[in-house]
Design brief:
two-stranded antiparallel ribbon, mainly beta, 105 residues, SH3 type barrels
């Protein structure tokens, strides 16, 4: 089970975007995440008239390591660490480590 999933709200803890928040768009392999509006870079793109792609400078989100973000806790309104535990019925759930509240309700 992954501690951070697609659709989660996260806050960046380190790096040039420290303190910014966004929603996880995609979870990549090797512990990388694509978060909307985070780690945005400008890239030059070559035009391709066959596919209708225009050339120029485009902005795109680059992957960020999962260790550099924390899951947003709505109770404390801060980034929080996440743990995994089993319920009495054997179901696996995520919980916030600071408040022991369940993430998946």
């Amino acid at each position: 089970m992954q501690k951070i999933r697609k659709g989660d709200d996260v806050i960046v803890r380190t790096g040039k975007d420290k303190g910014k928040s966004g929603r996880v768009v995609q979870v990549l392999k090797n512990d990388k995440l694509l978060v909307e509006g985070i780690n945005r870079v400008k890239k030059t793109q070559k035009a391709n008239p066959n596919t209708g792609v225009s050339g120029g400078i485009v902005s795109k989100d680059m992957p960020i390591n999962v260790s550099n973000v924390g899951l947003y806790n709505p109770v404390t309104k801060r980034a929080d660490r996440v743990g995994i535990k089993f319920l009495e019925d054997g179901k696996k759930v995520r919980f916030f480590k600071s408040t022991n509240e369940l993430v998946d309700v």
